[in-house]
Specification:
Length: about 180
């Protein structure tokens, strides 16, 4: 299924990147490394960027284009020193987080949740920012920021940059869902 979706992405050069978000902790990293090696071969052939969530070591091991750091994770500066070839993104949840990411030298950021996610429940007490909240949080920032959380083809048109999981992967036809989403942004 994933490769069918990525095959559709070839038609939109420069508009799609793949992020591996496997968050399982502990255990054996070898299955994830093998999957990342396969994804890197495919994304390199398709000329699509590959970003690895949280794991700089695995990103470097497969020659990924970047790593996505959690808001309270490793510092951008430390990762830049240790892995100078990696682009660095930061996951953020507020304007203050975005400002810190920009100040630290992140190359991009995600801001979440914008809407209620379709791929997982919201943590207790968390309220989605909405498209207006996204615009207010990113206004005047030089940091490219991607809206994440509950993004669909219907609401993506209200946002400048989006990152999706459920809107594509949980759809009955993921490849078609990607096309619908890209046509609206």
């Amino acid at each position: 299924m994933l490769f069918a979706v990525l095959e559709q992405a070839r038609a939109f050069p420069g508009r799609v990147a793949l992020m591996d978000r496997d968050r399982r902790e502990g255990g054996d990293d070898r299955p994830r490394l093998r999957r990342l090696q396969t994804l890197r071969r495919w994304t390199a052939e398709a000329n699509l960027p590959l970003v690895v969530n949280q794991r700089c070591d695995l990103a470097a091991a497969v020659d990924a284009d970047g790593v996505q750091l959690p808001e309270r994770g490793l510092t951008v500066e430390a990762v830049r020193r240790a892995f100078p070839a990696l682009g660095i993104g930061r996951s953020c949840h507020s304007r203050e987080g975005l400002l810190r990411a920009a100040e630290a030298g992140a190359d991009w950021a995600t801001l979440a949740p914008i809407f209620t996610p379709t791929s997982k429940p919201l943590p207790a007490g968390v309220t989605p920012l909405g498209d207006k909240g996204f615009r207010e949080a990113t206004e005047g920032l030089p940091l490219p920021t991607f809206a994440l959380g509950g993004i669909t083809a219907q609401n993506a048109c209200k946002l400048s940059r989006v990152a999706v999981i459920g809107a594509v992967l949980l759809d009955e036809s993921p490849a078609e869902a990607l096309i619908r989403l890209l046509e609206t942004t």
